[in-house]
Every structure is written in C-alpha cells, then in structure tokens.
Amino acid sequence: MTLRAEIAQSWRRAELSGLKPDSPADRLAGADVADIDTRSRLLRAADPVLTEISRHLQDTRLSVLLADRDCRIVARRYGDKTLERALDAVSAVPGCRFSEEISGTNSLATPHELRRGVAVHGDEHFLDALKPFTCYGHPITNPATGRLEGVLDITGLVEDANPLLAPFLLQAVTDIERRLLDGSNLAQQRLLAAFQAAQHRSSAVLALGEDVVLANSAAVDLVDPADHPMLRELSRTRRGVRRVRLSSGTEVEVRMEAVSVNAGMLFELAPLRPAYSAATRRRSPESVVPADVEDRLRRSAAARRRVLITGEPGTGRDAATATLAGSQPVARADAGDVAPVGEAEWAARLDRLAATHQGLVVVRDVHLLPPLAVSRLARLLDTTSAWFAFTARQCDTARAGGTETGEVDAELLARVHRRVELPPLRARRGDIPTLARAILAGVHPDGTPRLTAGALELLAAQPWPGNLRELETVLTDVTEGRSAGDVTARDLAPLCPVTTTAPALSGWQQAEYEAITRALAAVGGNKVKAARDLGISRSTLYNRLRTLHITTA
C-alpha cells in the first residue's frame, strides 16, 4: 500500500514514539485521562456550533469530536448509538488525550501535529483498531492570536465516507473561530476597562492579555517587552505583591491583579532604591557572560591572575576570555592542535607566545592536552610572568598523571589562581531576552530585528542543549535576510520544539524537565531511545512528558 506523504511521515513519527500497529486502542483510556474544564474558552465558543451540528447528524452514522490544544477530547456529538459504542471501544471518549505519540495517525492527532486539515481513511490509520473509520480533521486557530486552540474532527465508518464532510466541517471550524474572536474582543474590552480605571495612578501600570499589551507612559519608560514573559510567568503562580528585578537591572515592587476570567492581568510597578553594590552590577549590554562571572573576571584581570574557565560546549568560554582580556590583545593556543603539529612544536609555539606576547595568552580546551604537553606547560607556568588563561569543558574532578574528556590535570589546577564556571543556558532562562538581543546585535550590527514578547517566551522554554551557540544558530537562521521588523513566536516555532504551555515547575520538576529534554535532544526526539538512556520505561516517560508539558516536534 502506497501512503500519501503526510500519512507516511505521520506513521514514521508514531513508530519513533514506540507505537506498533497492533497496539490495543482500549489502553488509551487509561493512558492519560483528565477532567474537562467545561468553562474553557474553546468549549464556550464551540458549544453552540456543536449543538447545531448535532441537529444535522441525526439519523447518520457520523460523529463530531472536539479536542483542545493538548489534543485531549473535550466534547463529542454523534447521530447513532452504534457509532458511539464503536468510539468507546477505541477510547475516543471525552477526557482522553489522542496525540500521535499515543494514538498514531488519525484526524485528531495528525491535524494537531501538522496544523492543517487532514483526511485519514481506513487503512491510512496507523493503529489497526482505528482502520474501520474514516475521518477528517481541521485545526481551530484563534484569529486574534494565531494560536492553536484545538482540533475539530468528523468521523464515520469507512463505508460512510463522503467527500462533502470536509467542507461541512470547515464551515463549523470557521464558526468556532469567529466565536473565539468575539470572546477575545470581550476579554479585550474588560482588560481595557480595568486598565483605564488604573492608568491614572502615579506608578507604572501595565496590562497583559493573551494578545493585548496596554501601558501608561510610566510603564513604557520602565518596562521592556523583554520583561513581559517574566511577568506573565510570575502571575501564573503568584498574586499580591512581589519584588523582582527587570531586564534593565531596576528592582521594582509589583502588585498583580487578575482581570475577570481569561481577560488578563493588571500589573502596578514601583521602582525601589537600589540596595546592591557595584559588585553585583548588570553585565554590559553586549556581553553574553553572566553578571557575577563578568565581575569576577574583571577583578582577575586587574591583578593579571591565571583563570581556568570551564563550562559545557557553547556556554561562552571564548566570550569569557575576551571579557577577561578587556582591552588587552589576546593570543590563543588550541590544545586540539597538539596532534597535528606534534607536542614539541606546539610547546615551542607556546614558549614563544609567553616570551613575546604582552596581553592574555589563552590555552583553549586544556583538558585535551596529553600528559607530556601538560608537564611542559606546568614548567612554563613556573618560570614565566606571562598572563595565562585556560578553557575546558565542565569538569568536577582533577586527574593526576593524565586527563580524560572533561578533566583537567591536577598539575595545571595547582597553578591556576581562580576557576570560573559558566552556567548552561537552561540555568539562565531569565537572561534569555537580554542574551538574545546581544546576539542579534552581533549578527545584525546595522539593524537589529525586534523579538516580540511571545518569541522571547518561546525561546525561554527551550532546553538549549547547545547553549549559547545553539541560540545564536536559531536566531541567525530565523533572521536571515532581514535587518528589521518583528520576529514572532510563529517565526521561531519550526526551530523550537518545546511549546510554552508548561506551568511553573518546582526545583525538582525543573531538574527532571531538563534531564528529559536533554535526553530527547540527544537522540533526535526518539522517545524509545530516550527512555532507555534515562533508565525508565516508555510509559513512565510518556507520563512525565504529559505532566511536565514537554511537547516535541
């Protein structure tokens, strides 16, 4: 059987998730069932439309299923009890999640994955249990925000297939989207009314809705769009008054107030007098080095101390050495060159640098040096007054008499005055707006495209196994060919596999989130391999993916 391209690709995704065609469909009801929020915006908009559809479905063997943005079935209408029983048998019931990783190829899961309408007929279903059905599904997009709200699907038995089902369903989707727009307009009106009532206050007032930002003049001067994701995240878990530091470095007191149901949040911000010293100042706007690390490096530079800079690949070790050098010239010797040029020649080059270079001499990837080169470098450090710095991968131990990947020889560690460790990007999510701007300024020095608040929120949700280097690659790719204009979350979505729907996580959950996303990134999204590498069962991995709201492409 020859499959259409979109169906073949869906089958491949299902296989990578560990599904098999003979996987029983009745297991779905126990895999991930949750309570339905009957007051959700999607259901409020869809309910009248579904009621009208029910009238047309009378005396037919057709059913309409509505799934939310997590591909969880939240409503079902049918015209015949026979089809109801057939859907019950394959767990197509309200509360059950029907994503591709769970249910394979079908017209709920595949439109949810592809973000466009898809028909799936009979044998095109991945699971054997779904092959008796024919169905057509189409995503529901909020016209005000452009965000996916859910999927509407019409399903019948194979013998009842009808080409008119697609336009019938598409009209229903259009009606639901129009009602979503009307609901968004009402939410905007409520948010505007709350903002107008508060904007006369002397403090900065900011209102954030799903697709609306309102600010008085004081808030425009104080709050940068880069701060919006932080404020949204804060409002998800907190109410009342909090002290936070904005991306500008200004510490403020924030009072948060919800505006009706789903309308948005009202923030009142008042700057506080800085209570921190110059030692904790913000880093330079163009720097990608953390502020505390930058301060330690500058103090080391004043005394020309030898510094070992460690960190995961891509965390900015070269940028840190540039910060350390300041205005002094930098000469670099790469430990990876020892093998091609020979230990004797490499050591001789380093001797010449130590004797002639007036600025900073950087030995990159010092953990790769063979034992003899380590000994010669140690002897050089004992006799020279040259200023040296070293970079290495993140390492927890020193090994005497030799090195392994990620380890720095104890001989060298004994001759280093200060060790600085660069944190991975996943531990610096609050810095991502500033980092993204600094990177874009370097990529586009003649005109920097603007990242919207939604784009910054999406960037902050990613696991970034490649750290700053990966962030730079994504930003370079998405802004190629443009020097101005807004970069939105939609622009970034193809390059950012993790969505921004995850709730605030505890410290333990954050560690778990990072371990899982790193494991998935390492195996190209293959959940079977990721579960094996993590030492957990596939079902446990699926449960954690759902609990932590980790969505993979």
TrEMBL record:
The keyword Transcription applies. It comes from Prauserella sediminis. This is Transcriptional regulator of acetoin/glycerol metabolism. The keyword Plastid does not apply. GO terms for biological process: regulation of DNA-templated transcription. Pfam families: AAA_lid_14, GAF, HTH_8. Keywords: ATP-binding, DNA-binding, Nucleotide-binding, Transcription, Transcription regulation. One of its GO terms (molecular function) is ATP binding. Residues 420-480 form the Sigma-54 factor interaction domain. InterPro entries: AAA_lid_NorR, GAF, GAF-like_dom_sf, Homeodomain-like_sf, HTH_Fis, P-loop_NTPase, Sigma_54_int, Sigma_54_int_dom_CS. The lineage of its organism: Bacteria, Bacillati, Actinomycetota, Actinomycetes, Pseudonocardiales.
